[in-house]
């Protein structure tokens, strides 16, 4: 019985893909069986883990029903990946029949017992792809940059969570808000941390104790087709992601 | 006869809104009449310039045809704004009839002669909203973070530009790629600069000489409802944006 976690924030560039790949790799390192699902038409999760996303079958084919999920999942050194590419940007228009919110959930049923964890990376939008992730997931992690514009988006996320809970997935919960590119010495960062804690309370959740600091290693890693955890294992973000996983496991936030 | 420029990159968080608000404010400071159009359902452009975006009529009402553009445009101290809010995220589904790509262009015709410049801020997506911006615009500016994932998105943008030129707007051109959060001392940044110059050539364009350096002032400014140019006029990004405008005007890239 796998735990399915969606990594979400419609604000761009806050670290959803970085968090998704780091969780996949760190869980895999500790012996868990993991599947990463990329729901962003930009395909960055697959790219960041070394896949050639231009020419492969993707989650678009699976959700459309033209390919079986088992044919499309790719095995990598850091776990299995269900990649995406730009064709998925047609989803909003093409997936328009009743039940369109359940396409991913239904397809995942076929394989989810083979994994301990499924991590879903989502696009910077509150659209049918994000809704599919929320409907399929047990829980959400919300990465955030410690900046004002990042806070702005969280109330919109809350409405989407409420709608999904009311209509499709009453058990969906928020594991926590993860501050990324965090610099504890900056006033703005500390102020946004305070406001995030208030917002987390409104979501019945928390801000994780682990905060991911900034390092150019995160930006360099994709060029090598690697997660920062294998590219620069002793860098601050790598240590912080390992601390996040400790927190998730020890507090039984995930099991 | 106004010059209409769309600020675009489907990668999240690269600085589209920061660039849009900085161009609006710097043009306004120099006496030009400016209109900012926010096409991102997150409404950050309006928010960053001090508007209350929750309770106002927006570009969604205008594109839907239920309000006239002149009723919705808001005058501010830094020029006029046509704001957006979360209702615009329904656009992909709701704007589905023939001519859906021309909704913004047609509405702008009514007011564009009152402005020297119209700056359109776009969402992190290649969807009907971005296509509306490309169809309405004379030219594009592409902000980019000096990171690998930023480069990945540019080839997808190129395909959208080609499609729009072929089908709807043959005169659309790319003014240039703008590197944001640029640190000339980092190897990665210099490597990405080289690659960006190659990509710019493929777009028949250039990387701007002006590069926007990073400063926490940019992240602080929205909390005060101001652009960084008025919040911190001597900060590095403010000086860099003024240099960008000099470059655009002196090289007659815009007039
Ligand atoms: N802790 C960090 N330190 C330094 N750079 C970071 C860090 N986290 C993310 N980045 C960089 O910021 C950029 C955005 O990160 P990422 O792609 O993970 O965000 P995202 O939320 O998935 O973006 P999108 O909304 O476009 O999907 C990337 O280029 C990444 O390399
Ligand atoms: N030069 C800079 N220095 C420091 N911070 C910056 C700089 N440019 C942008 N930022 C910060 O990065 C974040 C993203 O910037 P911005 O919102 O302008 O990007 P965007 O491309 O419009 O994002 P989205 O894709 O979500 O619309 C903001 O919180 C902003 O404050
Ligand atoms: Mg991403
Ligand atoms: Mg923006």
Helix and strand arrangement:
2 copies of one chain form a homodimer.
Chain A: E1 3-7, H1 16-29, E2 34-38, H2 44-48, H3 59-64, H4 69-72, E3 74-76, E4 79-82, H5 91-94, H6 103-109, E5 117-121, H7 128-136, E6 139-144, H8 148-167, E7 173-179, H9 187-202, H10 216-220, H11 228-231, H12 236-250
Parallel strand pairs in A: 1-5, 1-6, 2-4, 2-5, 6-7
Antiparallel strand pairs in A: 3-4
The radius of gyration of chain A is 17 Å
Q: Largest interface: which pair?
A: A-B, 37 and 38 residues
Strand content of chain A: 5-15%
What is the H-and-E element order of chain A? EHEHHHEEHHEHEHEHHHH
Q: Unreliable segments of chain A (pLDDT under 50, ≥5 consecutive)?
A: none
Sum up the structure in keywords.
homodimer, 255 residues, alpha/beta, seven-stranded mixed sheet, 14% strand, binds adenosine-5'-triphosphate, binds magnesium ion
Kindly describe this structure.
Chain A is an alpha/beta fold and 255 residues long. Helices cover 43% and strands 14% of the residues of chain A. In chain A, strands 3-4-2-5-1-6-7 form a seven-stranded mixed β-sheet, sandwiched between helices. Chain A is globular and about 50 Å long. The A-B interface holds A 10-14, 17, 41-44, 47-48, 86, 89, 92-93, 96, 123-127, 145, 147-149, 152-153, 156, 159, 186, 188, 216, 219-220, 222-223 and B 10-14, 17, 41-44, 47-48, 86, 89, 92-93, 96, 123-127, 145, 147-149, 152-153, 156, 159, 186, 188, 191, 216, 219-220, 222-223. Bound molecules: adenosine-5'-triphosphate (ATP) (2 copies) and magnesium ion (2 copies).
